[in-house]
Specification:
Layout (H helix, E strand, L loop, with lengths): L32 E3 L39 E2 L12 E2 L10 E2 L2 H6 L2 E9 L5 E10 L4 E10 H10 L10 E5 L8 E6 L5 E7 L5 E7 L4 E4 L7 E8 L2 E7 L21 H5 L4 H4 L6 E7 L2 E4 L11 E2 L1 H4 L3 E2 L5 E7 L2 E2 L3 H4 L14 E2 L12 E7 L5 E3 L16 E4 L5 E7 L14 E6 L4 E7 L10 E7 L6 E7 L4 E8 L5 E3 L13 E8 L2 E9 L5 E5 L8 E2 L2 E8 L5 E8 L9 E6 L20 H6 L3 E5 L10 H18 L3 E11 L2 H10 L7 E5 L6 H6 L7 H10 L8 H7 L12 E6 H18 L4 E6 L9 H20 L1 E2 L6 H19 L1
């Protein structure tokens, strides 16, 4: 399977999922902005100064669904070949001077993060909701919190010059109902501002739709707990639509047969036929349900009487209910894909692996994640459907802007994000998808903004697209290009042509005009800031993490460098607290993305990465922004060139000791790290890879018939051939699995559950074991790819800290619970010394 949250495909491919914020280096966290003005505009982020900064001259500065979620206790599967003691330094982390303490994995887990879309104003601007998430180690569960504020009360405090932190929520909702998170997602206000709806995880791991009455402070379920809701849109409690995962996924197969037909079925279905949690992250067949005038019903497929309408991943997440509650826009699969579509609607990447595939698309396939889908209008009264553009959405061809749809207030027009158009003209180009407006009365379509590829200069991530309130001739597009946000307005003239609006006047209700912004930088944890629009008075409304004031964080700065090919690189350099100029520190390279604006103590992800924790242990950490995924044979080489040149620069600057370098790979970058271990001039002293792609022969073989074989097509594009006949020679040269004899560094391999172990991580572990090389295998229980379970994060991130302290510094944690861990690792050290002595 292919990479991380960065996915546009269901394996771990190079492209982003809808949750992710994606530039070429997808992130899980970023600065988000919201406003209380009537026009829905945004405020700007004002970066704050560095914390614990000692250097005044410091620098400042993608398609797939998560495939695994696995449960249980973590286990260690490392068998020792030989044993002999070795002298190591045993002790805790170095302590900072003064009263501050050092940052730990527990601090990282317990930190409150603002959610993906953290601020939501009610339509009448009377209320706003602030959403945060954190891990609770004592309960071993994530927690989501919704804090509901009254806008007018907040503004009164601002105008009187009071202390904003005294402003208390009128309602606080806290949920911690399952071992994995996020617990609360997809929050939406009702049209009349009387309440809001959201998805919450139940104890079974399914998502249930709830409604919150903001006046009575009452929560009520809108869907049965037995249904797993994957997307919804709502007007009020009597008018809403939602999608559920098909009950056939993970349902027990009752049969008296003594054999099973496996032809055409994936190994997931054959090996784990009743595992709902695992299969629900592999398959995406869903059903569309609706509540109209209070009557609940399943929407039927008119072409298949008595059968439900099949709705797949992207359709489930693009539901847009009309103002009158009769129609819904979604993305449905085309029954037949014409032969010329790959040419008419080209892929957003150069690789042929992600081209649209012509032919029949079965409406009952368990997985339609990679199907060619098109925006469709569904009449909930009759079940009649109509494709709006008669062309595919961009994500079907790996264009990474996330799809979405919105209605005009009069219900006569819709705006669609990331769709190709069937009519080609200078303003409606076929070769690139668009943000497009469809006039439902005139049955016309217009491209108002042509999209760029994620590798093109000027690519910007679209955050939100909507019609201005009460107006069907103006569309706002909110962009985020690594933040801060920007809103561009497009206006339709009398000839029906859409252009960028100049000098647009916006209506602002000064009584409720409050801007909210989340301010943060590399060294300052995020805080919620409120500003009165009329007076400009501002203050901090909420600091979610006051505990950080007593923690010595060290300093992160932006590092820029060039590789030998002249390519520009950027990353975040974490220096230890009490950093001493001229001291040569060990270095750990963390891969897979970097944001210049966000406070991210782990680094890019909370799986395996532990940047500030490692720096607290006296190790310099470099969080690297990847090359854009090219899905060809140059992809790994590009990354490795960046790692090599970064080490050269840091060593030349006198910051690191190049003989003590470690590297961490996660998801897609497991392949890059294995490439660095088998084909790089770097001296890597220790490495770690977790739950990811390796472009190996076993991964290729075992993923047959999974996700329309996209995983194997991608591997063929990256290696340059199929692993058969003469093509096998390319695999022998380029696949890390066939070059494990060149690995000289101790490698820790971490799998997240059974499927991860079997489908992803086993081959490199087994190969190194056969070669009698130092390798440690950790298998976490059932969990999310981007870890959210506190105990699993403690094992994953804490394991990274322990692993690199051991190999790069010769240190052991004196915790008695880790005696067995260090006994194993001393054996690996002995093994390494025997190899080096040969």
């Amino acid at each position: 399977m292919r990479s991380s949250k960065e996915r546009l495909g269901k394996g771990k491919g190079p492209f982003p999922r809808p949750l992710p914020k994606s530039n070429s280096n997808p992130k899980t966290k970023e600065t988000n902005i919201a406003t209380g003005t009537a026009n829905g505009g945004t405020s700007t982020v004002r970066p704050l100064g560095p914390r614990n900064s000692s250097d005044p001259k410091r620098e400042t500065g993608m398609i797939s669904k998560q495939l695994r979620q696995i449960d249980g206790k973590s286990v260690f599967l490392m068998f020792i070949l030989c044993w002999a003691p070795i002298n190591l330094t045993v002790g805790a982390y170095p302590t900072p001077s003064g009263t501050e303490r050092l940052f730990t994995v527990a601090d990282d887990i317990g930190m409150s993060h603002f959610a993906e879309s953290p601020i939501a104003f009610s339509p009448n601007r009377r209320y706003f909701i602030v959403q945060t998430e954190r891990g609770l180690l004592n309960l071993n569960q994530p927690e989501s919190t919704l804090r509901v504020y009254e806008t007018e009360a907040l503004q009164k405090i601002l105008l009187k010059g009071g202390t904003l932190s005294d402003a208390k929520p009128v309602w606080t909702i806290t949920k911690s109902t399952y071992k994995d998170g996020p617990i609360v997602t997809s929050l939406k206000w009702l049209a009349d501002s009387s309440g809001f709806a959201f998805l919450v995880k139940t104890s079974s791991g399914r998502d249930q739709l709830l409604i919150a009455d903001v006046h009575r402070h009452i929560l009520e379920p809108l869907t049965p707990s037995s249904q797993h809701v994957t997307g919804f849109d709502i007007r009020d409690r009597r008018h809403f639509v939602y999608a559920i995962l098909s009950p056939s996924i993970g349902a027990p197969k009752i049969s008296a047969a003594t054999s099973t037909v496996g032809t055409g079925r994936s190994m997931y279905e054959l090996l784990f036929p009743t595992d709902f949690v695992l299969l629900s992250n592999v398959y995406d067949l869903g059903e569309l349900w609706a509540v109209v005038e209070g009557r609940r019903f399943r929407v039927q497929d008119r072409l298949r009487p008595s059968e439900p309408m099949s709705i797949y991943y992207w359709g489930q997440r693009t539901l847009a209910l009309s103002p009158d509650g009769r129609f819904v826009i979604t993305a449905l699969a085309f029954p037949n894909v014409p032969e010329d579509w790959p040419t008419l609607y080209p892929s957003g990447v150069s690789s042929a692996a992600y081209q649209i595939r012509p032919g029949v698309q079965a409406p009952t396939a368990l997985s339609g994640y990679l199907y060619a889908l098109g925006y469709a209008l569904v009449d909930l009264h009759t079940g009649e459907t109509k494709f709006l553009t008669n062309a595919p959405i961009g994500v079907s061809a790996a264009w990474v802007v996330l799809p979405g749809a919105a209605w005009s207030a009069n219900g006569k027009s819709v705006v669609l994000v990331n769709t190709f158009l069937s009519e080609s003209s200078e303003r409606n180009p076929r070769q690139h998808p668009c943000v497009a407006v469809v006039d439902l009365e005139k049955d016309s379509q217009a491209c108002i903004q042509q999209l760029k590829k994620h590798t093109d200069k000027g690519f910007r991530r679209i955050h939100k697209v909507y019609f201005e309130s009460g107006n069907n001739t103006k569309v706002n597009i909110e962009y985020c290009a690594d933040c801060p946000n920007e809103t561009v307005t497009y206006s339709r003239n009398v000839e029906g042509v859409w252009n960028t609006a100049v000098g647009v006047e916006r209506t602002t209700n000064e009584k409720t005009a409050v801007h909210l912004s989340i301010q943060q930088d590399l060294n300052r944890e995020p805080e919620l800031i409120a500003t009165d629009v009329g007076t400009g008075k501002a203050g901090m409304l909420w600091d979610p993490n006051p505990q950080f004031k007593s923690i010595a964080l060290g300093e992160e700065s932006v590092l820029k460098w060039k590789d030998q090919n002249g390519r520009d690189w950027v990353g975040g350099l974490f220096r230890p607290p009490g950093y001493v100029q001229g001291h040569h520190y060990p270095l750990v390279i963390q891969t897979h993305g970097f944001s210049e604006h966000d406070f991210e103590p782990s680094g890019a992800f909370p799986t395996a990465f532990a940047a500030r924790e490692l720096s607290a242990a006296g190790i310099v950490v470099l969080q690297v922004r990847d090359c854009p995924a090219s899905v060809d044979s140059s992809e790994a080489a590009c990354q490795i060139a960046g790692y090599e040149s970064a080490v050269d620069q840091l060593a030349a600057d006198g910051i690191i000791d190049r003989s003590h370098v470690g590297i961490i790979g996660f998801s897609r970058t497991c392949y890059y790290v294995l490439g660095a271990l088998t084909n790089s001039r770097l001296h890597i002293e220790a490495a770690s890879i977790t739950d990811g792609v390796q472009e190996s022969y076993l991964q290729y073989i075992i993923n047959v018939d999974t996700l329309d074989n996209i995983l194997s097509r991608e591997a063929e594009a990256i290696i340059g051939s199929r692993p058969f006949g003469d093509g096998l020679q390319q695999w022998l040269k380029r696949s890390p699995g066939f070059n494990l004899d060149k690995v000289h560094a101790p490698l820790q391999i971490v799998a997240i559950g059974r499927a991860s172990l079997l489908f992803e991580m086993l081959e490199s572990y087994a190969g190194l074991r056969y070669l009698h090389k130092p390798v440690d295998l950790i298998v976490l229980g059932e969990g999310t790819h981007i870890l959210s379970n506190p105990a699993q994060r403690m094992v994953s991130q804490g394991g990274s800290v322990d692993w690199f302290r051991f190999w790069l510094k010769g240190e052991e944690d004196p915790d008695p619970a880790k005696v067995g861990q260090y006994a194993r690792w001393r054996e690996l050290r002995r093994m390494q010394e025997l190899i080096q002595a040969r």
